[in-house]
Amino acid sequence: MSSYEFFVGLRYTRARQRTRFISFISIISIVGMALGMMVLITVLSVMNGFQREIRTRILGVAAHVQVSGADNTLKNWEQVAQQASRHEQVVAVAPYVNAQGLLTYGSAVRGVFIRGILPQREERVADFDQHMRSGRLDALRPGEFGIILGAQLARALGVTRGEKVVLVAPQGQVTPAGILPRLKQFTVVGIFNVDHYEYDSGLALTHLEDAQKLFRFDDAVSGVRLKLKDLFQSTAVARELTRMISTEVYISDWTLQHANLLRAIQIEKRMMFLIIFLIIAVAAFNIVSSLVMAVKDKHSDIAILRTLGASPGSITKIFMVQGMMIGVLGTVLGVASGVALALNVDSAVLFIENLFGFKFFAKDIYLISDLPSELQAPDVVITAAASFLLSLLATIYPSYRAAKVNPAEALRYE
What we know:
Elements: H1 3-12, H2 20-61, E1 65-68, H3 77-85, E2 90-105, E3 108-117, H4 119-125, E4 132-135, E5 146-150, H5 151-157, E6 164-175, E7 178-192, H6 197-200, E8 203-207, H7 208-214, E9 223-228, H8 234-244, E10 250-253, H9 254-257, H10 259-297, H11 299-307, H12 312-343, H13 345-356, H14 363-366, H15 377-394, H16 396-403, H17 407-411
Parallel strand pairs: 3-8, 5-7
Antiparallel strand pairs: 1-9, 1-10, 2-3, 2-6, 2-9, 4-7, 5-8, 6-7
Helix pairs in contact: 1-12, 2-10, 2-12, 2-15, 10-12, 10-15, 10-16, 12-15, 12-16
């Protein structure tokens, strides 16, 4: 592309008195493309943030790999733990007892998921100690029937550290009067908050031996939880452990346990990309319309350039420059505003919530308390490249029309 083609194309992007409407459409195209890119970059960053936060907080209290026994019972858990520990990826193993029950305090009653643990082992598998709002994990001691509650669960029951709650176990006791529920009083020795509503509102921890006594496990457990060096190798490790463990067990990893949630986020991210990308496509169509009108307005100029020796290819390049300038300006403004908003989306959402007095994201629906955002360079690059490519494609037809202008016909009535 020669310098004069670039110069003429750049000059045509400037407004004259009689082409204000064309310039107005060009401005609308730039603004539309910039807004589309800003929204797309921000939405992709928020979806990345949701994926990161949910994965991080789930894995803060869930196991990378979980080995459970048939019917939720594993008798020889020490042998299974020893065999699993031989795998090079396994760095920690902790037994657990899973059960369900009802917690009561006064008139408040809540369904709860009970997890019996050995505090010293559990600290190496999960991150509860980092999320303790009150008390410590090692406050759970055998025979003392202490319990640690999620923050939302403790708030719903109205209890604080040091108070006593009653756990109703589903296994009943047979008496002459019939089957009666089994009750046991526990002392709240700690409260954790992982900012994940599912766990904060429905999980309670107690010592492994206390859970075994209450739920009649004897010396058995529900299974063992494993922590790996690389959590993204969990699927392969789970497959390899099936050959290493001699006992008949069921092995699952975190991607399987939370597959629906993670898959839903991926699908939502792709669909949001396609839907919002249509905004940029609409802006690209505006480029087509503005260039078509510019070609119509510049018929006489095109004819003069052709009579001066300009080739059809040069005419094509001139109008492609004009369209590409609109695309470049829209892309640059879109990337700048999108990156700025993605990095400060929490402040923007807080401002809007305070302004209109409502919450965008309910914690019980979206599982996390704050709106996360993680700006990733590939998202920005792909969005910018796609936007520029669309603006380039939008210039082809108008530029082709300009190259086909007949100089004699154009200058007949001049």
